[in-house]
Every structure is written in C-alpha cells, then in structure tokens.
Write a structure and sequence with these properties.
The chain is mainly alpha-helical and 290 residues long. The chain has a domain at 85-278. It is 65% helix and 4% strand. The protein is built from twelve helices and two strands; from the N terminus they run ααααααβααααβαα. It has a two-stranded antiparallel ribbon. α4 packs antiparallel against α5. The chain is globular.
C-alpha cells in the first residue's frame, strides 16, 4: 500500500526539473518575452511600415500577458492573482500618478539647479498618444519579467531581501547595452528596481508597478522631451534642454543616470521598504524542493 502511494505521488523528471527556481526563472523570462521579437519580426515581414502603427505593440502586449499567465499556471503551478482584473484600473492609475510625480520632482530639482532649461510648450496633438502602445508593452514585459518572474520566484526561494537585491541588480544590468550607461545609471536603475519590488510587495499585484513604469517613461520622453534610458529623445509636450554637469543631467543615458534621480528614487524606495518590512509583508526563504 505504501509503495503504491509513493509511486502515485512521485514527481516526473520534468516536474522535478521545473520545480527548481533557476529553471522557473529562465522559462518564465523566455515565455514572457518571446512574443515581443516574434511579433515585431512577423509584422515587419507581412505589413508595410506605414501600417505598423500601435497595433503590433498592443498585439505583443496581449501575447506577453498570455505567456506570463501560461508560465504561472503551468510552470509555477499557481494562480496569477497578481494580474487579477478587479482593481486593475485603480492600481494602474496610482502607478501612473506615482511615476509622473517622480519625474516632475526630478525635473523641478534639475531646473532649480540650473541644468534643465525650459523654453516653451508645443501644441497638443494625437501623436503624443501613439508612444503609449509601446510604453504599455515595455511596462508589461519588463514588470512581468523582473518583478513577476525574477523577483517572485527568487522571493519564494530565498526570501524578500535577497530577491530585492538580485532582481534590482539584474534589472539594472539589463540596460547595459543602452547608450550612456554609467555607474550612476546603475545606481538609479537599482534604486528604481528596489522601489518597484517594494510596491509589488505592498500590493502583491503587478498593476501598480506597470503603471509606475509607464508613467515614468511617458513623462520623461513625451512630456519633458528628454532621453529615456539612453534611447534617442523625441519631441514632447514641453520644450527644454538638459545641459551641464553629467552627474546631474545623466549625460547620454538621460535623467535615470542623474544623481538627483538616484537620490529621489532612493528616498521613495526606502519609504516603501520601511512600510513593507514594518508591516510584516516580507517573505522568508522557503525550503529547497525535494
């Protein structure tokens, strides 16, 4: 009887393999992100460039959503409650507001220091909304990969503290190929990764993280017309110029590589982390799989 029970409960080799955190992370990253290059390549092959506006990014975002949910259900063997729809709009809105507030504070301080020079306002037009599709895709893909998969799996295996450190550092180093990458850029992105991890821990949801990500990127590029993580700047709502000491302006990488950004985001991250740990929302390491 005992032998029969042991045979019935014995895991298959594949199930034992996918129980390991590192395997889950690799599979989760691939399943979540694979849709992005595949969708863009197929769209470029099948559709003329003039018709590749907005919809490829939105399609890729839907496929990213599906890939992440498949990973959570089939590999992690749990329900993706972090993507539950009730409360989504409210949490996205809070994240967008937080991202916009952090950007506005950053540029306000840079203006006071004399390195951001405001010169006017451009006319409002629908073109300012087009980048939202790409930013939605970026926000969903990166937050599902770095907070949902990397942070989530690592936290359950090693606990919250190590998960915060590992996921934030990997998130930062993932931007290494971008133009102007620097030590301050690493520090700024690590601080941002800590903030996002703390927001995820407070809510156990990804929506506020996605909203913050979109809000930050959109406001830097489309409101303040500045460089986002080393990507070429585009004309946005406000006309202005960052000029002066690269430690303050962030240089070619943009404001994410600014000392001002590092300090402001670090303060916000420390505040959120304090609430998480004093509120008992941290997770201890789990036992290793047998």
């Amino acid at each position: 009887m005992e032998t029969t029970l042991n045979m019935a409960t014995k895991k298959s080799p594949l199930a034992r393999l996918t129980a390991y955190p590192l395997v889950q992370i690799v599979l989760g990253m691939v399943l979540t992100f694979a849709a992005v290059p595949l969708t863009m390549i197929m769209a470029s092959k099948l559709v003329d460039k003039s018709y590749r506006i907005v919809w490829p990014q939105l399609l890729a975002a839907v496929l990213v959503w599906c890939g992440y949910r498949f990973h959570v259900r089939r590999i992690e063997k749990r329900q993706p409650i972090e993507l539950a729809l009730p409360g989504m709009a409210r949490e996205l809105g809070r994240g967008l507001l937080l991202g916009a507030t952090l950007v506005t504070l950053t540029f306000a301080v840079l203006a006071l220091l004399g390195v951001y020079r405001f010169s006017g306002v451009n006319a409002l037009n629908m073109l300012l909304l087009f980048p939202l599709a790409e930013l939605l895709l970026v926000g969903m893909a990166e937050e599902m990969m770095f907070r949902g998969v990397l942070f989530g799996v690592t936290e359950r295996a090693l606990g919250s503290k190590l998960a915060i450190a590992i996921s934030s550092l990997v998130f930062s180093l993932a931007h290494l190929p971008n133009d102007g990458f620097s030590v301050l850029a690493i520090a700024g992105l690590v601080a941002y990764g800590v903030l996002q991890a703390a927001l995820y821990m407070r809510t156990r949801r990804l929506w506020i993280c996605i909203g913050t990500h979109i809000g930050w990127n959109y406001c830097v590029g489309q409101v303040f017309s500045s460089t986002v993580s080393g990507h070429a700047e585009t004309g946005g709502l406000l006309r202005g110029e960052l000029a002066g000491n690269a430690m303050l302006t962030g240089g070619a990488f943009g404001v994410e590589g600014s000392l001002v950004t590092v300090l402001l985001i670090s303060v916000a991250a420390a505040y959120c982390l304090r609430q998480v740990f004093t509120g008992g929302q941290a997770v201890r390491p789990a036992a290793a799989p047998e």
